[in-house]
Specification:
This protein is mainly beta and 69 residues long. Helix content is 0%, strand content 70%.
């Protein structure tokens, strides 16, 4: 049975966004960010031990399209 997997994950970070025109109304968007965990919960299974710990440093990114009318 899992236990300790319902703890809050608290992190601080920064994001950057780049918007670039493709046509007069269509534009592309690139977003990236980095996070530092302030609290690192663990998922622990009885009899097995630690199954997962939130990493200290993490990141995310995305690419998208936007339409302005």
């Amino acid at each position: 049975l899992p236990r300790g997997g319902d703890e809050a994950w608290v992190a601080a970070g920064a994001d950057a966004r780049v918007v670039f025109p493709i046509t007069r109304r269509l534009f592309g968007v690139a977003v990236g960010g980095v996070r530092v965990s302030l609290r690192r919960p663990q998922l622990v299974f009885e009899g097995v031990g630690e199954a997962f710990t939130v990493p200290l440093l993490s990141g995310e990114g995305s690419l998208g399209l936007g339409w302005q009318w």
